[in-house]
Amino acid sequence: MAERMPSQTFHSTEAFSSKVCASLRPFIEYKAAHPELASDLQDQIDRALRHFCYEGDLKWVSLLLWAGANPRSVGAKHTEPDDEPEERQTALELAAYHKDVAILKRLRPTTEDDLTALLKCAAVVVSKDSLHYLLELGANPNDKDNGASSAVDSCLSHIHVDGFSLWHDHRNTSSWAIRGSLDALRTLLQTGALWNPDDRQEMNSIRRMLLGCEPDAIIELLKVLTEYKACSDETLEELFSKRMREHMAQKQWWMSHLKLRHLIQPKPSLRERQARIVPRDFARRYNREELYDKVWKLPMTQLAKEQGISDVGMAKVFRKLYIPVPGRGYWAKKAAGGKVPARPPLPSVQVV
């Protein structure tokens, strides 16, 4: 093998990868005997390691590490040219992209490595085992400047269906199909990871991805996000654009159950928002939040007696304060143990 390895053949890395599989010891001996070629030879064996990490071949990953391959060197895989910077990665990163955590464990990442970057790689392929392993090593789940997780962003932006991205599937995706992504997301959120997109472009990307899912699948995602309180109300409100509201309109019961029904209700127009004006003296006389809370706990007649006015007068107070009240038959249904609609949110008003 040594006689067939002149320096001009080193750039044929695909041929090198097949030869190094046949005989590693002669390669090591050749490298020791030709120190002037050590740099080129090291580059070739590092390329081979990156290739087999990408392929997920644990046997050859182990052999190449034994032969001196460096899992932290940056470069392309053997099938890719050097002049494409976006393709330059380490073997550690390529191992994190593989679903088999054994490949990553064999490279033995430490706290000296960028574990958070590796966590983000594992989130792309929704490798639950790799995520768990990296978190145990000390990867920071919330690495972004806004205090949220780039790994969660990756997980949500790369929902996969049987190995294929939603971008390549023309059917709406079921909740069953994204179960792997939900499991990976739950693994991150259990450690306190948060979701907060950096900008509108990132939010638009995730929204487009979710619009390719069935409403049931989005409900399953919302269950996970709300269970771990992984995002703010403002983030969810931004997610639910007009198209998303229309997409989820048939899931009113589930949205109410998750206390998110307000997200699918039509947003008031500017004219409607400007029309909600409450006189300042009227707002001082009544506490809107307190009345809003009471009217959903007591019938209007009881509340009117408590306030010392008629039930008709009490109803006028609620209208002037723009406080939503239970509809006709609400209390009868509730007394009979029947299903009643969820309490709508208290709208904002202008006090003038």
Compact summary:
By secondary structure, this protein is an all-alpha fold.
SS element count, helices: 21
Number of strands: 4
Q: How do the SSEs run, as a string of H and E?
A: HHHHHHHHHEEHHHHHHHEHHHHHE
| Proportion in β-strands | under 5%
Sheet having the most strands: 2 strands, antiparallel
End-to-end CA span: 89 Å
Q: Outline the low-pLDDT stretches.
A: 1-12, 162-169
- What is the CATH fold-level name of the largest domain? Serine Threonine Protein Phosphatase 5, Tetratricopeptide repeat
The assembly state of the depicted protein chains is: single chain
Helix/strand-derived category reads mainly alpha
Structure description:
53% of the residues lie in helices and 2% in strands. It has 352 residues and is mainly α. The chain folds into three domains: 1-101, no CATH class; 109-267, Serine Threonine Protein Phosphatase 5, Tetratricopeptide repeat, CATH 1.25.40; 270-351, no CATH class. The strands form two sheets. Strands 1-2 form a two-stranded antiparallel ribbon. Strands 3-4 form a two-stranded parallel ribbon. Helix 1 crosses helix 3, helix 4 packs parallel to helix 6 (101-107) and helix 19 crosses helix 20 (311-320). The longest helix is centred in the N-terminal third of the chain and has 18 residues, at 38-55. The chain starts with 12 loop residues before the first helix and ends with a strand.
